[in-house]
Amino acid sequence: MPAMCETLRPPPVEPSPATGAYAIGDLAREFDISTRAIRFYESRGLLRPERRGTVRVFGPADRQRLSLIIRAKNLGLSLEEIGEHLAIFDAAPSSGDPKALKARADRQIALLLTKRHDLAQALRDLRRISSDLSVRLARSRPPTR
Q1: Are strands 50-52 and 55-57 parallel, antiparallel or unpaired?
Q2: Which of 2, 32, 129, 137 has the smallest count of CB within 10 Å of its CB?
Q3: For the segment 122-140, what is each residue's pLDDT rounded down to a tens digit?
Q4: Which domain does 57 fall in, by range?
């Protein structure tokens, strides 16, 4: 029986920010998140890096998407809401149904405005509590001699 001939492949090109390509570790360090988080976003369809062999290669568009994902996550959006948010960015203004795209954008605007209102209320509440605690602490301090 003849020996199996292996197909020789050149080693994968290592991604480098200088070439506009990023390895998963590069993005993890840049955004101070784990590579596991990036793979999770990929598994949910939020990121779609190119593959070179077994290496994930993220381009500038992937980097921008990851930035949007992290920002949306920090705003408290669910994965579904993040997906909707990204779909708006993915849709070219000249493609698809402009009415549907505008409706999606308007829903996201309303969602973010609600979150901004909730955040402003939470900040007011916490500032009031902090102020009340400062007064209590000042009253409970023994007088200085």
Answers
A1: antiparallel
A2: 2
A3: 999 999 999 999 999 999 8
A4: 14-76
